[in-house]
């Protein structure tokens, strides 16, 4: 039996899978996907050499795509940061890239997430499920049958992973807020006792990329240099604290901090506002997603009485939880 937890984010694609009793495997890849002619070749590649040399090459609707590649390597960048991402060929290319990574011809159960706001739209969730289910020709000579698909709200994966580790003494008595600070979106779910509170769970489109855009403006204002958002995103992913750009030394750490201090309170304000109908205060907060470092301070200011749990692998938490869920439910 092959169980796959898949979290296709706007910034990164995370996957966790296991096969029978083998140790689970988890991977993080950049969410870059584009028709192959727009993907840069590796430096030193032969003229006419079509192999990417990185990422995965897949076929979507008779067209060859590069998948799981750094968006900085795509000419003209990625152009699909919008609500209907899940319906685009780029999304399918990332999906096929993930299936290629797993390498099995059969996936017994796939669990994946949609932004919380989209998940409330049952029609939409059904549509995405229909795209993922069934037999897929991933590339020449390799096809995969996906036999069962479950779609859950994005941040719920981290909750499953959290429950599995039983960090909390009595989670059944908690009013738990799970927040997934992603690249493009922030998703949150409120879990009171063991029930999900739909009215206090939602998404907003101001994740890490919002902070990165602010960093771009601050660098321009302070150093007089234009640096693309994809480039800054690459530096953040590499964990660079500072970088030399021409004659300037740019303190990325300080600029990231300043950008977050400016924009994070507004984002966290939206989360607080969505909880205003709850009579019981949030007493535990679980944070996950790659942009957590940008938003944690604003969260602690907004919910000072709560106990904080940071998912041990914040970027992978959803995918890991999705796989656990896939495995538990067969
Ligand atoms: N060390 C890091 N590695 C990767 N991303 C990081 C790191 N530190 C901060 N980030 C930020 O985390 C974000 C990516 O996080 P994540 O992978 O959780 O997002 P995503 O799931 O792709 O996005 P979304 O949930 O909006 O679809 C980026 O905006 C990036 O700026
Ligand atoms: Mg995400």
TrEMBL record:
Taxonomy, superkingdom: Bacteria
Protein name from the UniProt record: Uncharacterized protein
Domain Actin homologue MreB-like C-terminal: 178-296
A matching Pfam family: ALP_N
Domain Actin-like protein N-terminal: 5-157
């Amino acid at each position: 039996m092959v169980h796959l937890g898949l979290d296709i984010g706007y910034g990164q694609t995370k996957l966790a899978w296991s096969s029978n009793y083998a140790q689970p495997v988890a991977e993080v890849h950049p969410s870059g996907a584009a028709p192959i002619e727009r993907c840069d070749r590796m430096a030193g590649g032969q003229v006419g050499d079509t192999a990417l040399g990185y990422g995965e090459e897949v076929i979507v609707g008779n067209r060859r795509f590069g998948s799981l590649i750094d968006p900085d390597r795509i000419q003209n960048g990625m152009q699909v940061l919008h609500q209907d991402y899940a319906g685009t060929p780029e999304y399918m290319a990332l999906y096929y890239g993930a299936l290629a990574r797993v390498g099995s011809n059969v996936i017994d159960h796939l669990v994946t997430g949609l932004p919380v706001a989209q998940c409330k739209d049952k029609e939409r969730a059904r549509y995405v499920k229909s795209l993922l289910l069934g037999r897929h020709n991933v590339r020449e000579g390799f096809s995969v049958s996906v036999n069962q698909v479950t779609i859950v709200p994005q941040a719920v994966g981290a909750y499953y992973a959290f429950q599995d580790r039983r960090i909390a003494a009595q989670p059944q008595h908690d009013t738990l807020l799970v927040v997934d600070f992603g690249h493009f979106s922030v998703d949150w779910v409120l879990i009171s006792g063991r029930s999900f509170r739909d009215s206090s769970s939602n998404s907003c489109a101001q994740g890490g990329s919002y902070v990165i855009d602010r960093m771009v403006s601050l660098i321009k204002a302070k150093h007089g240099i234009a640096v693309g958002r994809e480039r800054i995103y690459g530096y953040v992913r590499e964990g660079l604290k500072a970088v030399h750009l021409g004659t300037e030394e740019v303190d990325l750490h300080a600029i990231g901090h300043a950008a977050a201090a400016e924009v994070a309170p507004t984002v966290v304000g939206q989360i607080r506002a969505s909880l205003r109908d709850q009579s019981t205060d949030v007493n535990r907060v679980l944070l996950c997603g790659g942009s957590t470092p940008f938003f944690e301070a604003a969260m602690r200011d907004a919910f000072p009485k709560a106990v904080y749990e940071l998912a041990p692998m914040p970027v992978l938490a959803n995918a890991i939880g999705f796989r656990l869920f896939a495995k538990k439910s067969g």
